[in-house]
Design goal:
The protein has 276 residues and is an alpha+beta fold. Helix content is 26%, strand content 22%. The radius of gyration is 20 Å and the shape is globular. The model has no long low-confidence stretch (mean pLDDT 97). The structure holds zinc ion.
């Protein structure tokens, strides 16, 4: 599942190509991808002819601002990726939505499982959508440790569940929650309210380091290669993961075997020694 580092890596690749470009044509091959819109025609009508002002991001959502003030939202879902190619390039399977730019470049949304979506919203529609309930961005708007401590105070929920809660911090998913908790030496099972001040400081620093490192390597492409950069390259962070997906392998810090626990229906990988 693409998380903040993958979406931000995608954004950084898209921005220089999209910003300032005008949209020539929109092709919706899978109407399910525009299910948040009244109908596929409405999505196309809101895009065609518009100039792209900026490509932004909040959590796992790409927010592309258009000249008419509307916001083109892209969510990669479980298995989505964006491919930037020449209009004449062969169309690969599952290219569900194609946005053609004046000048000959295509933005192609490839998503085999169709859990992702695209939509063009007015600022009011955006505020009323589920995006209006997103918390602060974990990279660009990370709360201070004092603020983070206040957010966690009294919480009975596990740290893993709290880090996945997009209304608290936006952008962290299963991979980077596990990686941040290992770096901070905090068990995913700990109740949020049980963290002391030093642990909150450590957690905040671990989130920063984890996201920055993942970004440096272009994010994580797992073995399925569902996530790729817009130019087709794989993200290179998988070989550097500390715990995620490493059940039974040795902790890089202490040598103990990494274990997997199911927390709220999600796999959590952690070291019982370092995160005891
Ligand atoms: Zn360890």
């Amino acid at each position: 599942v693409p998380e903040l580092p993958e979406v931000e890596t995608t954004r950084r690749s898209l921005a220089p190509v999209l910003e300032g470009a005008r949209i020539a044509e929109v092709l919706v091959e899978r109407p399910r991808m525009v299910r948040r819109q009244v109908n596929p025609e409405d999505f196309a009508r809101r895009l065609v002819g518009q100039r792209i002002a900026s490509v932004g991001r909040l959590g796992k959502f790409l927010l592309t601002e258009l000249g008419n003030g509307m916001i083109w939202v892209t969510h990669l879902g479980m298995s989505g990726r964006i491919s930037l190619v020449d209009h004449t390039a062969p169309v690969v399977k599952h290219s569900n939505v194609i946005v053609a730019l004046v000048g000959g470049t295509d933005f192609r949304f490839v998503d085999p499982r169709t859990f992702g979506f695209v939509a063009v919203f007015t600022p009011e529609e955006l505020a009323e959508s589920s995006l209006g309930r997103l918390g602060r961005d974990a990279l660009t708007d990370l709360p201070t440790s004092r603020e983070l401590a206040a957010m966690l105070a009294g919480r009975q929920a596990s740290m893993k569940a709290l880090l996945l809660d997009q209304s608290l911090l936006a952008g962290i998913g299963n991979i980077y929650a596990d990686e941040s908790l290992h770096r901070a030496s905090i068990s995913p099972l700990r109740a949020g309210g049980s963290l002391d001040r030093a642990e909150v400081v450590r957690l905040r620093r671990a989130i920063v380091m984890t996201l920055q490192n993942a970004l440096r390597w272009g994010g994580t492409s797992l073995d399925d290669l569902a996530y790729l950069l817009p130019d087709g390259r794989a993200g290179d962070y998988m070989g550097r993961l500390r715990v995620y997906g490493r059940e039974g392998e040795r902790c890089r810090r202490c040598g103990r075997e990494i274990v997997r626990s199911v927390v709220r229906g999600r796999s959590s990988f952690w070291c019982p020694q370092c995160q005891g």
